[in-house]
Amino acid sequence: MSVLDNWKQWEDFLADRLHQAQDEGVNKDVVSDLAYQIGDYLANQVEPKNEQERILADLWSVADKDEQQAIANMMVKLVQNNGTR
Length: 85
Hints:
Blueprint: H1 7-23, H2 28-45, H3 51-62, H4 65-79
Helix pairs in contact: 2-3, 2-4
C-alpha cells in the first residue's frame, strides 16, 4: 500500500520527512520551496487516491503560483505536529 492511498498515512509520512529535515537544519524557506515542488508534482503527475487528495488537486489546479505556495505552506503547518516523532 502506498502512503498516497490513505490520508492519515500521507500526513504522517509528510510529518516524519518534515521533522527529519528540521532535525538536519533545513531552513523554513527550503522546506516551503520543497513543499511547493512536491505539491506541483503531485497535482500534475499523480492521480488522487482519496477525497482529500482530490480536493487539494482541484484547489491547486485553479490557484495561481502565490496561492499554490500558500497551499503548500498550509500543508507544512498541517503536518508539523503530526508523525511518529
